[in-house]
# Entry
Amino acid sequence: MAEPAAGRLPDFFIVGAPKSGTTALYEMLRRHPQIFMPAGKEPWFFAEELHERPPPRPEGTAQSLAQYAALFAEARPGQRAGEASALYLWSRTAAARIAEVCPQARMIAILREPASFLRSLHLQFVQTYIEVENDLAKALELESERRRGRSIPRHTYWPGALLYSDHVRYVEQLRRYEALFGRERMLVLIYDDFRADNEASVAEVLRFLEVEDSVAIPAVEANPTVRARSQRLNTLVHAVSVGRGPLSLAVKGAIKAVVPQGARRRALGATKRRLVFSEPEPPDERLMAELRLRFRGEVEALGGYLDRDLVRLWGYDGIS
# Structure
């Protein structure tokens, strides 16, 4: 990270958490005339953990600060530039790496009740080939094995991200950023508030960024939670989409030769929606209760940090 900046860099970051409204917030902010955000969400540049086995991406991933700065080259003078990488909050390296090159940047986080968050995150990881264990309870039981480097899915992109309980160490994560940027450069939103009143939450963000807060921005529903009907089918479709394996390479090569890229992406998305994914099943309420008991201490700590009664808001007051 010692190389010099090669152009415009962000004024603010949406650092997390995943499955907590960050995509919707990103989509809404990038519609504001005084804000510039790259067309692609999740650059991941500052999180070293996410570069160990980077997933294949059509647009590639920035490998140098110059390449990263190029993402913001179209920002106009006077615009606030920002990006959204929802795993920066979880990352143990991102805060310090951001501070090296963007020491005056502002940080935005949206936090969600731990049990529902982990359920949604697990479904997302199954959907995106990071996780192969469809059962959340079993995936949580694998944490001790995975900390020792065992039971890691062969093709997972981010082994460390499969340690689910690490994702809800909210206060520890926030303090990493506070130590480097100061509390005054941090805005922490609660997912429930964002869902209940998009307009008020976005206006709060706009004031935090010191841009016009009366601009009308329509609410956006983004990145819905789904479940994989079949992990085998999910893996097969993904293998073809990225050209993994001799047969998949041959199929992908034949398709690329005759079908434009945009049409390929639309067809793949339609295939996944029809055949691979469906609405998630209702949550296992017994497991949800166990998770609330397990993470009550985290909720109490976060409530103290934010000076807000999250125990009552999130229904933890009857748990002991």
